């Protein structure tokens, strides 16, 4: 609870600093741009975000259905929405997956199966994300949408390395049971010799069980290749909708620019690639820096700052707030039912 509260305080402080830096010299122009925005295009951006949520929920639901036919699709819409809240207030978005396991378990699915569902979804999500990253890199190299600064290029390289490393780790842990056991045994034995880990045999047995569960996940994926393929398609479409949101806001603000939807999707992909690994709730500060750095190739001045503020509100602050409200309302309802 203390860590959660600290994360929220850090998030608020950083958000206030970022917003102040953005508006301090152009607050009148930014306010005027927002007032005169075409809100039909803002609604279109919200629709794209809704598509992003729905297309994330579809494969989640399909793989959960392999474990239980009683769990319904609307639950996964709810789960994706409240996950935004827990991801938004925790560094590196680490709060979402434990919540997902907890919520799925409450649907009368065992903890082991709940964990398996979440792990399978994580593998598919990361695989689709890496595919989109590769597509974005190819698009920019081919069509030359932008030339990033040295800092952004280095940040993107780090992001690419970490995403590939994370995906490789998930696949290795999921598909190589013997390697995992040897690796875990070796690590725990070393830590035990350094007196960092106690109860060596108990820890080894626990981690071997975890590795076995990961291996079982891989077998479910291998037995359902058609579902895996469609899941990747749904997730690629989800990312496409999400990454296209800035072009709708550009239209809403009546900004004259030669920015295209393909360039928008490519640059937004790079924005997250360059900063999502920062250990700050919502990667606050890094996301704004990356967005500003990439999109300034097409938009400048207060127009860019207004675009950034609205985009960040729609993709981070609003989902975090809505997710928190829905989660708390649902918790209150369940508490009243048990009284």
Characterization of this structure:
With 339 residues, the protein is mainly α. α12 runs antiparallel to α13 (286-295) and α13 (286-295) packs antiparallel against α14 (301-338). The chain has helices at residues 2-23, 27-35, 39-64, 73-88, 96-105, 111-143, 150-175, 177-193, 200-223, 225-243, 245-252, 261-275, 286-295, 301-338. The chain has 14 helices and no strands. The protein has one domain.
Major sheet: none
Question: Segments where pLDDT lies below 50 for 5+ residues?
Answer: none
N→C terminal distance: 24 Å
Roughly how many Å is the radius of gyration? Answer: 22 Å
Summarize the structure.
81% of the residues lie in helices and 0% in strands.
Which key features would you list for this structure?
339 residues, mainly alpha, 0% strand, globular
Write the layout of secondary structure elements.
Elements: H1 2-23, H2 27-35, H3 39-64, H4 73-88, H5 96-105, H6 111-143, H7 150-175, H8 177-193, H9 200-223, H10 225-243, H11 245-252, H12 261-275, H13 286-295, H14 301-338
